[in-house]
Amino acid sequence: MAGYLVEDARKVTTHRLTEMKQQGKKIAMLTAYDYTMAQIVDGAGVDVILVGDSASNVMAGNMTTLPITVDQMIYHAKSVVRGVKRALVVCDMPFGSYQVNASEGITNAIRIMKEAHCDALKLEGGEEIIETVRTILAAGIPVCGHLGLTPQSINKFGTYAVRAKEEAEAEKLVHDAHLLADAGCFAIVLEKIPAALTERVCREVAVPIIGIGGGPADGQVLVLHDMLGMNKGFSPKFLRRYADLHSVMTDAIGQYVSDVKSCDFPNAEEQY
Ligand code: KIV
C-alpha cells in the first residue's frame, strides 16, 4: 500500500498552497465529480480537488468540455463539497459562463460560489479574460488560471496536440502567466506544454504552477478516471495509470451477472 501520509490534517487554503511552493512542497491535485469519489480522493490526502469541466467528457460522454452548463457544474461541485473535509475544492467555470464580459463572468462566479459552496474557481485563458479575472478576484473569490492547452478553445486549436512549442506562443504564455499571477490568481494550471517552458514559468512566477502533461512543476493534476484506468481508450504519453479499474470493475460486474444467472446469489446468508 502506498504511503499517503497527510502531514497537516487542517483544511487546505489558497494561502497554504503559496506556502507549499515557498517551502518546495509539491501539491497533489486530482479531479472528482461526485460525493463518493470525492470522499475517497480527500481521504487519500489529495491537496486540491478540481471539479473539472472534464465532467462533460467522463461523466456525460460528450466529445468536448463545451456542452456542460453552469447548473451541471453546480450539481457536481455541490456533491463533491459534501464529501470533502480537507482538500481545497476548485470548480471550473464552464464554457460560455465568463467569456462574454466581466459582468456576466462575476454573476456566474457568485452564483457558483453561493450554490456549490466550493472554495475557488478556475478559468481558462490569459490576457483575453484578465478583466473578468480581476473582477472575480475583487469580489473576494479565489481564482486559479489555466494556460497552454485550454480544452474550451479546442475548436480554435483544432487539435489536442502539445501547445506553445513555437517561441511566439511560448512568450505569450509566459506573459499571460505573469498577468494572472500579478492580478492575484492563487495558482495556474499549465496543460500539455514543453517541460522546459513549465520549468521557466515555475521559476519566474511566484504562485504555484500545477502541471498536466507539462513535466515537473510545483504540483500535478490528473483526471481521476484516467489515472484510475477507468477509461481504456485514452492513453496520452503524460498519463500514468495507478490502477486498472476498468478490468477490476468489469470482472466484478461479470462475476455478479454470472452469480445471479447461476442462482448462486443470493445464498442462504444473504437473505432475511
Ligand atoms: O477539467 C479538467 O479536468 C481540467 C484538468 C485537465 C486540469 O481542467
Structure in words:
The protein has helices spanning 14-22, 35-43, 55-58, 70-83, 102-116, 130-138, 154-157, 167-183, 195-204, 224-227, 245-261; strands at 27-31, 48-51, 88-92, 120-122, 143-148, 187-191, 209-212, 219-222. It is globular and about 65 Å long. It is of the alpha/beta class and 272 residues long. The mean pLDDT is 97. The protein contains eleven helices and eight strands. An eight-stranded parallel beta barrel has the order 1-2-3-4-5-6-7-8, surrounded by seven helices. The protein folds into two domains: 14-241, Phosphoenolpyruvate-binding domains (TIM Barrel, Alpha-Beta Barrel); 244-272, no CATH class. α2 (35-43) crosses α4 and α5 crosses α6. Residues 31, 50, 52-54, 92, 189, 191, 212, 221, 223 line the site of 3-methyl-2-oxobutanoic acid.
Q: Provide the residue-averaged pLDDT.
A: 97
Which percent range describes the beta-strand content? Answer: 5-15%
Second-tier CATH architecture of the largest domain: Alpha-Beta Barrel
| Tally of individual domains | 2
Distance between the termini: 36 Å
Tell the overall outline: globular
Features:
alpha/beta; 2 domains; 8 strands; binds 3-methyl-2-oxobutanoic acid; eight-stranded parallel beta barrel; 13% strand; 272 residues; TIM Barrel
Secondary structure elements and their pairing?
Layout: H1 14-22, E1 27-31, H2 35-43, E2 48-51, H3 55-58, H4 70-83, E3 88-92, H5 102-116, E4 120-122, H6 130-138, E5 143-148, H7 154-157, H8 167-183, E6 187-191, H9 195-204, E7 209-212, E8 219-222, H10 224-227, H11 245-261
Parallel strand pairs: 1-2, 1-8, 2-3, 3-4, 4-5, 5-6, 6-7, 7-8
The chain binds 3-methyl-2-oxobutanoic acid (KIV).
The site of 3-methyl-2-oxobutanoic acid has 11 residues, from strand 6.
